[in-house]
Amino acid sequence: MKKIQIGDFLLSESGSVFIIAELSANHNGSIENAIVTIRAAKRAGADAIKLQTYTADTLTLDAKTDDFMIKQGTIWDGQYLHDLYQEAYTPWEWHKQLFQVASEEGLICFSSPFDKTAVDFLEQLEVPAYKVASLEITDIPLIEYIASKGKPVIISTGIADENDIVLAIEACKKQGNDQIVLLKCTTSYPAPIAEANLVMIKDMSERFGVISGLSDHTLGITAPVVATVFGARVIEKHFITDRSIGGPDASFSLNEKEFTEMVHAVREAEVAIGEINYSLTNKQIKGREFSRSLYVSADAEPGDTITENNMRSVRPGFGMHPKFFEEVLGKKFSQKVQKGQRLTNDLIQN
Fold first, then answer.
1. Which of 8, 57, 156, 284 has the greatest CB tally within 10 Å of its CB?
2. Three-state SS for 53?
């Protein structure tokens, strides 16, 4: 069974779901907001808080040409890439303090680096794992560099076809790193629930021999709960204290109340899945007392024939099993019986 250690959390195919609160741009440019959000994520039941480590210049060029304008039907259409990332990024000088706050709260803290300099920076902070964002899955040199650090690598597959996934896994293994988690992801903000395609979670785990999960951009909590039933061992969801503070990712992020409800629902789903086991618990065995069995339904004398008029299959279940109903019909009572008496072998003539 595959197991991956991330901080003090042991991630396994049969263990508890690792729930990540994605901070992303939900600090809206304020370190105070970021700190409050981390503390709220702990209250909401998250296991980890995830940052994004980039600058506008490490992600794109400050170019005001058509190529660099967003125009794909997103909530950010009309903005230039550099402007959006300049608004959304988490200043690197905040990271140390945010990691410290997470540690104080007992939250695992890690990040998505978007270039090698970000990886080097995060190594100084001794991150326990790395996340490869969906749009970076084709950046094989970056994935190789991340994997070379020997930490678990969580990879979102939002824009990936099967070959992209294979190449990303090979990039990790080339560095001797097989601590790989694949997250089903729909790269749309927000993502339509009809495009969640959660059946892929189980298939990715089996097809690629990895632990799998969900990076979710749908609205609400349905997808994470269903994903858990499909075997997701990691759930990542954007988290914000209050959508009214605004920001690039606010509209598709869960607030504290909603995130808390999601965590509760995921934990209930984990328990509800249970295991394949046809044996009965003591409570279920006790419950069988209310099942049907054979009872005398009318007074009868010794030698009277057992018919449907004096024997029935009824609740409770203390008499003979109903499967003997046809076998018993036509036989005779061995002694006097009364209505409501359990039918047992000693009441039947051999």
1. 156
2. strand
CATH of 288-347, one of 3.90.1210.10, 3.40.50.720, 3.90.1150.10, 3.30.2140.20: 3.90.1210.10
Q: Which amino acid is at 15?
A: G
Nearest one of 49, 48, 30, 25 to 94, comparing CA atoms: 30
Structure tokens belonging to residue 58: 């490490």
Please answer whether residues 103 and 109 qualify as being in contact, where contact means their C-beta atoms are separated by less than 8 angstroms: yes
Q: Which CATH superfamily is domain 3-54+89-273 in?
A: Aldolase class I (3.20.20.70)
CB neighbours of 36 closer than 8 A, spacing ≥ 6?
241
Task: Work out the number of other CB atoms within 10 angstroms of the CB of residue 201.
Answer: 24
Please answer whether residues 233 and 17 qualify as being in contact, where contact means their C-beta atoms are separated by less than 8 angstroms.
yes
Burial of 94-107, coded b for 16+ CB within 10 Å and e otherwise, reads bbeebbebbeebeb
